[in-house]
Amino acid sequence: MRATEAQAPGYTGAPIRYLHTREIDAFYNSQQTTAGGAVGKTKVRVTRDQATGQVKNDPKASVRKSRIADMNIYSPKRGFDFRISVSVEEPGRQSSP
After folding, report:
1. CA distances from 36 to 13, 32, 67, 90 (A)
2. Closest C-alpha among 31, 35, 39, 37 to residue 65
3. Which tens digit of pLDDT belongs to each residue from 69-84?
4. Cβ atoms within 10 A of the Cβ of 32, count?
């Protein structure tokens, strides 16, 4: 199913809207101090409009990612191994770091 088919007058299925955004994500290393005084490494993802380079005017344009844990999976019979990472994402500041 193409999004354009969902716009046809006789279409009776669920409505589908499509918007192709052109954005660039940049990642910055950061440190965060917890209430207990511990310092942890975090990353900040900032989303910018590709055409203008401006930070998007969206609450999700800046996100602080704090990694909780990794699970590394060794796969000796494959050409690669696997890693599953668990992170917490919190709204970051609106300006780039």
Report:
1. 53, 11, 18, 19
2. 31
3. 999 999 999 999 999 9
4. 13
